[in-house]
Specification:
By secondary structure, the chain is α+β, with helices and mostly antiparallel strands. It has 2 domains: 41-235, Penicillin-binding protein 2a (Domain 2) (Alpha-Beta Complex), CATH 3.90.1310.10; 239-291 and 301-610, DD-peptidase/beta-lactamase superfamily (Beta-lactamase). 35% of the residues lie in helices and 18% in strands. The protein has 21 helices and 20 strands. The strands form 6 sheets. Strands 2, 3, 4, 5, 10 and 16 form a 6-stranded mixed sheet that branches. A 5-stranded antiparallel sheet has the order 12-11-20-19-18, sandwiched between helices. A hairpin with a 7-residue loop joins strand 18 and strand 19 (544-551). Helix 10 (239-248) runs antiparallel to helix 20 (574-587) and helix 14 (358-364) runs parallel beside helix 19 (499-511). It is elongated, with a radius of gyration of 32 Å. It starts with a helix and ends in a 10-residue tail after the last helix. The relative contact order is 0.10.
Amino acid sequence: MNKNKIVLFVACVIVLIIIARLFYIQIINDEYKQIAKRNALYYQTQYPARGLIYDRNKNVLVSNQTMYDITVIPREINSFDTLELCKILNVTEEFIKQSLIELSKKHKKKGIASYQQVPVVKHISIDAYTKFQEKSYKFPGFYTRAYTARKYTTKAAANVLGYITEVDKNDITNDSYYQQGDFTGKNGIEARYENELRGHKGVVIYTRDVLNRIQYHYKNGAEDSMAVTGLDLICTIDSALQNYGEKLMKNKSGSIVAIEPSTGEILALISSPCFDPSLLDEENRVNNYRKLLDDKHKPLFNRAIMSPYPPGSVFKVANALIGLQENVITPDTYYSCSMGYHVGRGVGCHSHLSPINMTQSILMSCNAYYCHTFRNIIDNPKYESIYESFDKWTQYCSSFGFGRKLDSDLYGEKNGKIPTAKTYDNLHGKNRWKSLSIISLAIGQGETGCTPLQIANFMATVANRGYYYIPHIVKDIEGRGIDAKFKQKQYTMVDTANYEKVIEGMYLAVNGFGIGNTAGRAYVKDLDICGKTGTAQNPLGDDHSAFACFAPRKNPKIAVVVYVENAGSGAAWATPIASLIVEKYLTGKITRPYEEERIVNANLLNKDKNK
């Protein structure tokens, strides 16, 4: 190749490189176009008001208030009178300087484009906002932002409602709607229904002169767009009941879930210790979030949908239904109990009438009866192996809603835990376990864990005699309605006919005085409460107190579960709490003020204070 050809070749390569670079800059990479446009135009984002949240009775739970920030576009900042800016905003010179330094560091660390608008002074007063608007031309690169922040009209339901916070890098990456400085829902309804609540941003475009001063609407506003307000939501919560439940759970760790069986609507969902949702509003969140996060009692942890408690004796109801459906017991099957089940390691029980039938086994909460029943289920000769019979048992449990998410609209709902054959293969070895090895499942202990939501849903299923509606927290979305799945019946594997004798036992457990009933403290005249106590063993401390019920027996209006952590027997604490919830909801009053006072004043977080 001669010298001329080499020179020509190099020249062609250089030209191609230049063309490629120009193509990249002008066509592919729009950064320079964005910069040019922003030098001539000012885009003022119009932030929509978030949709309001109401309770089931149309009481406003979450509304909006207008907030004002000073924002900056870093590449536009030029020399300005710092003292005058500080005087307008009522901040110190050091605050402004430090804020700009931190902003610069954030831009380098997070890779934020220098033409993006980000807040630098937050929550200024309306007076400061107005004064800055009048003199904004003196501060190149500085702008105002007006937006709506949340305002709470209730001091309850913090874990139900959630909160809003500024978007992070992941939010921006995962959803092109968001830009730095925007807000999004975190936890609860705010997160689960973010797309419905947030609305749509608008924009107003202005032209700017050579001194960077805003002049007039670009193209007479032809390219402007209006912000669209978010959709209002009506949630299923009864705010009066929610407040009452939180009052009862003061100074206690645990949860209450109440469901309307005929719809699956959640009437109250309480995770205790509770906190005021306004602690995480826009003005207070920065100061309070870390305190709540570090609190040893974990108020940010939603026990009602995340904590897999051992269900305890409440689970006997499920095993009774499975035994009836599998025809391994009948309502007239009798078993004896002499303070427990004395096979293998054995399972203890309390003193009660013996022998007893299935209905009596529920009202007396007999452990021995359910050890017999469970072994009948697992050792059923119609199945070829324990693996087949145990798999069938887990299918029944799943049909009740245990061991899996219920597909609710509750943000953060957990699975709970129902063991599988693999669980016991790992514990004991393949083909080295039998019904007696897993006998603790008979009474809701061992490797079983159920969330309060799952137990409450199970109670609603029993109340409905064999089906449930998927529990949900939102009743209606403005102009749209809710997902059709929440209106479809979910049937279990147990026939309707098998529920009535079990319900008879639950009715007698509360109302059968003089025959060894275990839940007499839940009795309220004329309410026909049907329930089951539970004392869930806790390897980390005192037993959990549990009670699950529904009322009335015919045409049930409410199903409730209560768990009080480390509180001992179900009869002592969970049972009266649940009955007070039922009475308050069904009648609007309390006929046992002495019981209410005892519950409200009890401090079970610090038991020594009760002595």
